[in-house]
Amino acid sequence: MDGPNPPSVKSSRKLSWILSSVFLCALIMGPGPGLYLINEYAASGGTILRVPALYFWAVFWFAVEAAVIIAAYKLIWKGESE
Amino acid sequence: MNLPLPLAAIDMGFTPHIVLLLYLGMLLSFGIIGYLKSRVSEEDYYLAGRGQGVLVTALTIMATFFSSSALLGVPGLVYKDGVGFLFFVLNLPLSGAAIYLLGSRIWRIGRVRGYVTPADLITDYYGGSSLLRGLVAFVGFLYVIPYIVMQIKAGGYLAQRMFPDAENLSFFGMEYGIFDAGAIALSILTMLYVLIGGMRSVAWTDVVQGILLLSGMIVAGLATVMAMGGPSSFFIQLSELPPAALSVPGPSGAWSPWKLMTICMFTSLATMIQPGQWMRYYAAKSVDTLKKSALIFAVGLPCCFLFGVMLVGLGARALYPPSAVSGNLLPHPKIGTSGGEFDQVVVAMIQEHVPLLIGGGLGAIVVSLILVAVMAASMSTADSNLHALSAVLTRDVYDRFIRPKASEGERAWFGRGVIIVATLLALWLVSVGDRNPDFQTLSLIAQLMFVAMAFSCQLLPLAIDALFVRRGTQAGAISGITSGILVVFLFTPFANIFLTGGLENSLKELTSTLGKLFDTGFCGAFVNTTVFIVVSKFTKRPTKEHRNTFARDTEGLP
Fold first, then answer.
1. pTM, full prediction
2. Which of B102, B256, B425, B432 has the most neighbouring CB atoms within 10 Å?
3. B558 in contact with chain A, both atoms CB, cutoff 8 A
4. Whether A66 and B286 lie within 8 Å, measured CB to CB
């Protein structure tokens, strides 16, 4: 193989589990029941960094999901064969 | 339908006509070039020779994913229900991941075995059952038709906005308003380039439409923020919204966190395995193409929503708050006049603010381009769905049940006939709904748009089993998908037709409670999966050799 060595199957599988867990956590915390943690504060007009709390919450958990996808692309998918 | 429309802040002159003509001319030329480049084969017509690169694949998947809802429905719901509905966007990264995780396996085995439709793969794994093929095709049909109808309807609304002063036209003794003219123009033109050029034309036009759409989303968001005095002032005005609009479940009470989460998990996957998207995986040039498309989709698209078009809905919420009249939520008169017009928010805001912000001449061009972007969103979904429906009905129904010995040429003509009939059927539904205020088809179809995704979701357990798990059986697959379809059907208004007495009321109560808590697709998929697992436990799996060769072909093993 000409390119860099792909990560071993075992470590790749471990990384897949970690990334999947973080992604699932983002789905639970973002649009899921995690919303209850911030909902009351958001309803009272609360802001985070001067942005309405719920909007900030959505952007933050999107950033987590996007980071997981970028990490998966760079560290796992790229090494997989055609 | 003649609605009193808010007027644009400036006289648009002939700018919309010129921009629209340029756009439509470009689409038709793509159709003709696609035809000239095509080879006479079914595979070429439906999959463009399986050679689409990253740019085309990424943009055609995005453009197919978007419908008129990207610039009409979704911002309309944000305007109606406030910040809570923003979380809908968090389904997009999962949809993006599915392009690679499901798409790469579909691509590999599709290339080896020459598949064209979703049913080709599913039925091949479960032993070639005609019943299963018919059920998979039926799920595709249930997804596709409401979507085409919605896009055509959007064409009518747009024409009303672009040419509010146009006079009625008369053909063969029938009077046609500007709504009809817009709906007819959009559907006929879309039908023409799909008929002429097949997948190649659809994909190329999707590229242009995708670029228009993404830029339209961002420009619309930026224009709203600037019109409200810049980011700081924009967010201050947002934080002063009423509590219900700043939290979940929102003013209408429809968006509980559990429902939003199940939508993000199941709607995302359902839309990525509908026939139009599934066929795009087959049409990609390589797995690498799908990897890159997945990344672009998962990261780029949510940005266009969160930092683009969603801000229009939120801005409108602050500037033109909806009001409750006799218990019903109605949009501000600047946005619309009835409960069904929340989805006009982007068009109304852009017409109102962009010309004031950047001046008359340039403003008219930008407004026209954004309106054309809305049209692009509608056409890009309608074309993909028409094309996919043609493939499904030709390969999975005509070729299997009606004329198994039909030549390739005959099948190609049947496929083109399907496109014409489906377009006319959708146009007829839109027209009847528009002319007869007592005919509730359109409102039913609006509900069916969400239900369509729920139907598509019923393919999910079978797809995941065939591609990853390989423990299910043919009997399990048939029972599972049938029960899933039935459960989703119970959530539709049509279920009441078949049920009477106490049963009808109990069912209404049950589906209403479940519908508030969870996504309908999730409810169907839950029953589907349970039945699938139980029946598979007691019936015979495909042979070990069959499962192994299938695993080898999906995973690309030697």
1. 0.90
2. B102
3. no
4. no
Helices of type H across B38-129: 42-47, 54-65, 73-81, 92-101, 103-113, 118-125
Tens-place pLDDT, residues B485-528 = 999 989 887 777 777 767 778 888 888 889 888 889 999 999 99
- How many folded domains does chain A comprise? 1
Task: With beta carbons less than 8 A apart as the criterion, state whether B295 and B218 touch.
Answer: no
Whether residue B97 and residue A69 make contact (CB cut-off 8 A), yes or no, is yes
Domain spans, chain B: 15-34+54-434
| Burial B479-513, CB ≥16 within 10 A → b, else e | bbbbbbbebbbbbbeebeeeeeeeeeeeeeeebee
> Which chain B positions have a beta carbon within 8 Å of A54's beta carbon?
83-84, 86, 246-248
Instruction: Tell which CATH classification among 3.30.540.10, 1.20.1730.10, 2.60.120.200, 3.40.50.970 matches the domain B15-34+54-434.
Output: 1.20.1730.10
Q: Hey, is B321 helix, strand or coil?
A: coil
Inter-chain Cβ pairs, chain A and chain B, closer than 8 A: 123
pLDDT digits (tens, 9 = 90+) for B17-46: 888 889 888 888 888 888 888 776 778 888
Please give the ipTM for the structure prediction.
Answer: 0.90
CA angle B48, B53, B54 (to 5 degrees): 135
Say yes or no for a CB contact (<8 Å) between A27 and B87: no
Evaluated on CA atoms B293, B278, B70, B455, the torsion sign reads negative
